[in-house]
Design a protein that fits this description.
299 residues; alpha/beta; 2 domains; six-stranded parallel sheet; three-stranded mixed sheet; 9 strands; elongated
């Protein structure tokens, strides 16, 4: 089987590397594409093939994976005579793993020839999970198609969730991100209440992770506020992009989202003030500066 992978960024490189290890131990071949030729050359040196271009690579691929920044890049590669839809091998399957817009994916899917199978399959678990092969994948897929590719997908994903028909994967990813960002902003207000009341914030964190407020965000994000790093593993610009997609999904589905709209405005304000490359939890700095108090654990 010939496997294609487009987009070797933080997430894509980890997934593609696991696929390459699989190919080097089987009869499968991996073709890769990225704007960064240094990364492509590194994959070539370890046994992958340079896809050269979408139009040259796609006719060879039985299955294609894409990991891209946004729907803009997905659409740019999907459409046109040089694009994925026109050139992908007859009967091939395309797994689109980005965090994408449902409305834009529907346009791609409606334009796809009937011989292709398109699967929205965003992932969760960060670059660490991509490297370790422990990602969770949310799939808008028919269960029979999932059975066909289950072994291959488990090369980089330890948790495959069939969420429903096409589009369900994207919706699931944005739904869980919505709650993530609501709680992320909430921890700033929570910690500030504790700080103003002279609570020990380290002890307060222990209380929160052992109470009804326990969550991944509470457990993992609060320490990165208390140490002043604000979590540089993910940027404020990418967080703001995610929330924009969440709010747009709400509008597309006809849902009133006052909390989502409020959080979106806050992240926009933070990005404008601190820059899109700042750590995503820099949004808490807005609360710190408003109250003239840093949220730090005491030694």
């Amino acid at each position: 089987m010939n496997i294609g992978f487009i987009g070797l960024g933080n997430m894509g490189a980890g997934m593609a590397n696991n696929l390459l290890n699989h190919c080097n131990n089987s009869n499968d071949k991996l073709f890769v594409l990225d704007l960064n030729e240094i990364v492509v050359s590194d994959f070539e040196a370890r046994g992958a093939f340079n896809g050269e271009s979408v139009s040259k690579m796609c006719p060879q691929c039985d299955v294609l994976f894409t990991s891209l920044p946004s729907s803009k890049e997905v659409n740019l590669l999907a459409f046109g005579t040089e694009g994925i839809l026109h050139n992908l091998k007859q009967g091939a399957t395309w797994f689109e793993t980005s965090t994408n817009e449902l409305s834009e994916w529907e346009k791609v899917r409606k334009s796809a020839p009937t011989h292709l199978t398109l699967v929205d399959s965003p992932v969760s678990g960060g670059s660490e999970g991509a490297t370790a092969g422990t990602l969770t994948m949310f799939l808008g897929i028919d269960k029979e198609v999932l059975k066909k590719f289950e072994t291959l997908l488990k090369v980089f994903s330890s948790n495959l969730l069939c969420m429903g028909p096409s589009g369900s994967g994207y919706v699931t990813k944005l739904v869980q991100l919505h709650l993530n960002y609501l709680v992320a902003q909430g921890i700033g207000e929570t910690l500030m209440m504790g700080a103003k009341a002279n609570l020990d914030l380290n002890t307060l964190h222990s209380v929160l992770i052992n109470s009804c407020s326990q969550s991944y965000v509470v457990e993992n994000y609060i320490p990165k506020v208390l140490d002043g790093s604000y979590d540089d593993s993910f940027s404020l610009g990418l967080a703001e992009k995610d929330i924009k997609l969440i709010v747009e999904l709400g509008r597309h589905l006809g849902i009133s989202m006052p909390l989502g709209e409020k959080v979106y405005k806050t992240y926009q304000e933070a990005k404008m003030k601190y820059g899109e490359e700042s750590p995503h939890l820099s949004v808490v700095r807005l609360i710190e500066e408003k109250h003239n108090q840093k949220l730090r654990k005491k030694n």
